[in-house]
Amino acid sequence: MKITHENIEVIRHSLAHLLAMAVRELYPGAQNAIGPAIENGFYQDFELPAQISENDLLTIEKKMQELLPRWTEWTSNTVTLEEVKKEFDWNKYKMELANEFAKEKKTLTFYTCGGFVDLCKGGHTLPLAEIDPHSFKLDRVAGAYWRGDEKNKMLTRIYGLAFATKKELDEYLAMRAEAEKRDHKKLGPALDLFTFSELVGAGLPLWTPKGTLLRNTLDAFVWELRSARGYERVEIPHITKKDLYERSGHWDKFKDELFRITTREGHEFAMKPMNCPHHTQIYARKKWSYRDLPQRYANTTMVYRDEQSGELAGLARVRCITQDDAHVFCRESQVKEEFLKIWDIVHEFYGAIGFELKVRLSLHDPKHPEKYLGNPSSWKKAEGILRDIAREKGVDAPEAPGEAAFYGPKIDFMGKDSIGREWQVATIQLDMNMPERFNLTCVNEKSEDERIVMLHAAIMGAIERYLAIIIEHFAGAFPLWLSPIQVAIIPVSDKFADYGAKVRDALQKEGVRVEMKHADETLGKRIRAAEMQKIPYMVIIGEREEKTDTVNVRPYTIAPFVTSDGKQTNEPSINEFVAGIKKEIEGKQIRLEPHERKNNQIPL
RNA sequence: GCCGGUGUAGCUCAGGGGCAGAGCAACGCUUUCGUAAAGCGUGGGUCGUCGGUUCAAAUCCGACCACCGGCUCCA
User: Fold this and answer.
1) CB-based burial label for A198 (10 Å; 0-12, 13-18, 19+)
2) What is the DSSP letter of A474?
3) How confident is the model over A286-292, as a mean pLDDT?
4) Is A253 exposed, middle or buried (0-12, 13-18, 19+ CB in 10 A)?
5) Within a 10 A sphere around the Cβ of A87, how many other Cβ atoms?
6) Which residue, A203, A471, A574, A589, could crosslink A184 as a Cys pair with Cβ 3.0–4.6 Å?
7) Which of A36-50, A114-128, A205-219 is predicted most confidently?
8) A43: helix, coil or strand?
9) Quick check: helix, strand or coil at residue A101?
10) Residue A376 has what pLDDT?
11) Are the C-beta atoms of residues A18 and A111 closer than 8 Å to each other?
């Protein structure tokens, strides 16, 4: 039997059955619920008579391997609800499904292999016994709600990995080990970018000088791109009376996730969970002429959301989120032009990071109108405008119903990182509802009050989450322009400290971030420390360099040094070095393509 | 929030009812070095927190806090 990428799904699904059998033999009374194939493997949910942990997985896996040779042939037969009852009386989950299918007049089928009968919609065509018994592996134990509903009982889910060959399984495990080494939760503190304190609380990262530098450098780049397109900075308080959110509709929809504050006089306030309502009030400060529009407000600022404790995860999900937020208040006739301007910003920004972008049209879910503000016709209109823009851009933009914001549809940008994972990053949203609720208008050519519309745009989205993504994308080895420390100067001994200071001053004069380590440790040790900190350039200086007014760029640094006129050298003069560094920073160059960052030039 | 796991020095971890341990880091002295870890020495702890059991708790039990893997949620 040849296992291909088409039939591996079938194998994975069959393995879920085998897992169910193994668990039922080891834990009599266990009820197996559902068990599908998933990306990279399969899972099976159980209600178990005993608690199990990851330590038990090896035993279960051995049992699966012991049973495997008997799984030579599948038989299937259509059954009646009565027959299901007879066979699965003991299993309330199978019975719940069977009753439901019967009600919907769906066919009920049993699939049997290796003496194990299961109620299943089928697709098992391959003799499982022929697979390599080492091409699968049980992976994790987790809780999962029956049918994905948190009101239901929590079952025990066992995850397994399964591939066509053991080699592929090993490769997958190696890739996962690679991802773990890049984990921002480990790399961030190791590179001294951020920290958490138990006294401050979960989900509330604290930013060190280096991390703050990184945040500010990224935000300055976004601001540079916005500023060139007519945006202006605004600033707002981080709290508000609840009245603002009652008007906007956020109070009703998100009151559980708001951090609330009661003043000593008993008035109710909230920490802002988003910025748009505040920004509407900046727009609403006066009557606008159509000539003054668009008004483009940019504001990088923190918002606060009372996330469930179990949701928090490093920087990827936090309780205080820095948004690089912007709102454009404009006439409907200006929407397309403003949208395209933001689109350009997104492309320029992500080009500099080396992310490939895909576009997604996030639309409302017509089946759940209660989840959204406004009326169907304004949604239809707004979504039509976004479709036109995507078409005009000539990009492939798959539509995702149900992914819209509650006030309007979005164009979302999905970025693929260096190890192939996809993330939603930038977003541009078209909002006809907030302007309605806050009665935002301008006076048009005919002296009438004209309803305006609002665009919401974030380039990085949440800076915390964005940093989590790029720390992992770059494995902590940032491009020169982003590195908190750009050059480490390492004199072979303190005899050359003066020359080192000369090199340092030459770089610092040009705004380069430099660190010089005194020679109270061995050369090797200082080089190692700089490598671990992933400092892009290390220059070693000693007698040779002092005599010739050069620096020695450590040859095995991330990439070769290139002078400003394009010459590759490890022994540039001080002036050549400064000019080359400056050019590389200004050009926001990425010296290595992300996939090259996997090799051992980068200490992980 | 729910299920499971984990919590010992700044970091990585050992120990497991009877004196709190190692390596790295830090600090001091010696070394001044040519491309990934010099040598010797010193300091560092309410063993996550609070409570219980016990003559005795880092160790056993409970609650809480925090972290990890999932589930649910995610403007």
Assistant:
1) exposed
2) T
3) 96
4) middle
5) 16
6) A471
7) A205-219
8) strand
9) helix
10) 87
11) no
Give residue A602's pLDDT band: very low, low, confident or very high (50, 70, 90): very low
- Alpha carbons A90 and A30: distance in angstroms, whole number: 9
Nearest nucleotide (CA of A494 to C1')? B32
* Average pLDDT of chain A to the nearest whole number: 91
Q: Taking the model in full, what pTM does it have?
A: 0.91
Residue A592, helix vs strand vs coil: coil
For residues A215 and A463, the answer to whether their CB atoms sit within 8 Å is yes
Strand extents, DSSP E, A129-183 = 136-145, 154-162
| pLDDT the model gives residue A596 | 47
Q: What whole-number percentage of chain A has pLDDT above 90?
A: 70
- Print the domain residue range for A52: 8-178
Residues A232 and A132 reside in one and the same domain: no
Cis-peptide into A294, omega within 30 deg = yes
* Each residue's pLDDT tens digit, A491-512: 999 999 999 999 999 999 999 9
Please give the pLDDT value at position A136.
93
Judged by DSSP in three states, A146 sits in helix
Task: Count how many residues are written for chain A.
Answer: 604
A479 lies in some domain = no
**A53 CB and strand B closer than 7 A:** yes
Active-site residue flag, A449: no
d(CA A68, CA A126): 13
**Chain A, 61-120: which CBs lie within 7 Å of strand B?**
none
Read off the pLDDT of each residue in A137-141 and give the average, rounded to a whole number. Answer: 90
Most distant CA pair in chain A, distance: 95
How far is residue A463's CA from residue A452's CA, in Å, rounded to a whole number? 29
Catalytic (active site) residue A421: no
Told to judge if A513 belongs to the known catalytic residues of this protein, a careful annotator would answer no
Q: Do residues A426 and A458 touch, judged by C-beta distance below 8 A?
A: yes
How far is it, in rounded angstroms, from Cα A449 to Cα A67? Answer: 76
Task: Return positions of chain B under 7 A from a protein CB.
Answer: 1-5, 11-12, 25, 30-38, 48, 65-75
Tokens at A512, concatenated: 């380069």
Domain annotation covers residue A90: yes
Which of A13, A410, A473, A504 does the annotation list as catalytic? A410
For residue A82, how many other CB atoms are within 10 A of its CB? 9
Find which nucleotide's C1' atom is closest to A404's CA.
B75
Reported as half-sphere exposure (CB side, CA atoms, 13 A), residue A238 has a value of 13
Residue A498 CA, nucleotide B32 C1', distance (Å):
14
Q: What is the CATH number of the domain that holds A41?
A: 3.30.980.10
Distance A200 CA to B19 C1' (A): 35
**What are the tens digits of pLDDT across the range A209-253?**
999 999 999 999 999 999 999 999 999 999 999 999 999 999 988
What six digits make up the tokens of A50? Answer: 């005993």
- Return the CATH number at A537: 3.40.50.800
A427 and A552, same domain (yes or no): no
- Close Cβ partners of A595 (under 8 Å, ≥ 6 residues apart): A418
> Which helix H or strand E contains A12, and what residues bound it?
helix A8-26
Q: Is the CB of A202 under 7 A from strand B?
A: yes
Residue A599 predicted with pLDDT over 60: no
Query: Is A13 a catalytic site residue?
Result: no
Answer yes or no: do A231 and A148 share one domain. no
Question: What separation in angstroms does the CA of A26 have from each of A19, A148, A246, A350?
Answer: 11, 26, 56, 52
The answer to whether residues A495 and A465 belong to one domain is no
Q: How many domains does chain A have?
A: 3
